[in-house]
Design a protein that fits this description.
8 strands; 8-stranded mixed beta sheet; alpha/beta; 290 residues; 11 helices; 41% helix; Rossmann fold
């Protein structure tokens, strides 16, 4: 792993595979870190001959935190009274900055959840840098789309009582992850614990998650702009997603005029169990491009 300068901030980046291989960039979702990609998932891309590029989004992991200003009220940000710290488009420019720093002219890219929204911005504004773009378990953010179940939304927004209580945080995160876990590809309790122990010990930054969410909630022009996409673009979604329902993926695909791949049994996670089926959906699309 290494820190690089990208888009004026520091981004923690890891690459796997030969430097001269075609690059495949993978973008994590809200508050999650590069170490939370399953090795089995990344190995699929390496076996297909790619150089894999993963990184910590801004405000997460070991990348730059935007914590020098007081945290505003979320309602004031959403209503426009206070500007967010940054936008999803800024996060997309971070990805382009990572490519520049690594000397990569063009790449394939896929993002999950918030990362899918970042990928959509990449397709809209930076399509010339990508051979293919995939938005996974994400949304256009258009008004009127169905929201997640109450249990899933609570899992997204609730915080542990004491952020310094390591075991309490891990137990809380295990419980909330179980709500959005893929019923057809469940994680074992040991996998869940390792997933959150590693993340807590590396960096626990709940305020960073709040700032990322502010970027999502103020990203209002993306739905109309999806029709501008000209780069090869696809949407992948789990049929059982309780947090971002399948209708959101269907809407994104319709607005972009893009193919939609629906994975039965998948909800809102990338696990050891669904690594093969999800990786193949991304690789099949990338291989189909000239």
């Amino acid at each position: 792993m290494a820190q690089i300068e990208a888009n004026g901030i520091r981004i923690e980046v890891e690459t796997r595979g030969p430097d001269d291989a075609p690059a495949f960039v993978l973008i994590r979702g809200l508050s999650t870190q590069l170490i939370q990609w399953p090795d089995a998932f990344l190995d699929r891309f390496l076996a297909a001959g790619y150089r894999v590029v993963v990184f910590d989004n801004r405000d997460c992991g070991l990348s730059t935190k935007f914590d020098r200003q007081p945290m505003p009220d979320m309602g004031d940000v959403v209503t426009g009274k206070v500007a967010p710290f940054y936008g999803v488009a800024d996060m997309a420019r971070d990805v382009v900055g990572v490519l520049d720093a690594l000397g990569i002219d063009r790449a394939d890219v896929a993002g999950i959840s918030l990362g899918g929204m970042v990928a959509q911005h990449l397709a809209i504004d930076h399509g010339e840098r990508f051979r293919s773009v995939t938005s996974v378990m994400s949304s256009s953010g258009a008004p009127g789309l169905p929201s997640g179940t109450p249990e899933a939304l609570a899992a997204l927004t609730e915080r542990p009582e004491d952020p310094d209580d390591r075991e309490g945080v891990i137990q809380h995160n295990m419980r909330t992850q179980a709500v959005i876990m893929s019923p057809g590809f469940p994680m074992t309790e040991d996998e869940l614990r390792a997933y959150f122990e590693g993340a807590y010990d590396r960096c626990y930054c709940p305020d960073g998650s709040t700032r990322q969410m502010m970027a999502v909630l103020t990203d209002t022009d993306r739905p109309e702009r999806l029709a501008e996409i000209s780069v090869p673009f696809q949407v992948v979604h789990g049929r059982e997603d309780p947090l971002i329902p399948l209708a959101c993926g269907e809407d994104t695909a319709k607005r972009a005029g893009a193919p939609l791949v629906v994975i039965d049994g998948m909800a809102h996670d990338v696990t050891l169990a669904n690594s093969a089926v999800l990786a193949e959906a991304l690789l099949d699309f990338a291989r189909a491009q000239p």
